[in-house]
Amino acid sequence: MAESAFEDLDTIVDNEEREELVKRVLELQGQLKGMINKVDTARNEHQSLLKENQLLQKYINNSLTSTAVFGATNGAVNSNNISLRQTDASSPH
């Protein structure tokens, strides 16, 4: 009879340990789900920013191309303006 009491005690301890382990596993699973959601959110934000950066780069390249085609405006200095100014300064008036 004493042996069965010890066996019952072992079973109770095993069940308590098992319950604690199950609780810990469920807690860790919840944390993992939270981390996965954060990673997914960061990945989506990264993709969005990457697309936005590509769009801005195209806009900048198109702006630079159109400026080169139509010439600099609003007092912007380009190589032609510099050479003209140097020629004007060196010529006697």
User: Poorly predicted ranges (pLDDT <50, ≥5 residues)?
Assistant: 77-91
Number of strands: 0
Percent helix: over 70%
Quaternary assembly: single chain
Mean of the pLDDT scores? 79
Write up what this structure looks like.
With 93 residues, this protein is mainly alpha-helical. The chain has one domain (2-90). The protein has 2 helices and no strands. The longest helix has 69 residues, at 2-70.
Salient structural properties:
single chain; about 90 residues; disordered C terminus; cytoplasm; mainly alpha
Topology, pairings included?
Elements: H1 2-70, H2 79-90
Quick rundown:
By secondary structure, the chain is an all-alpha fold.
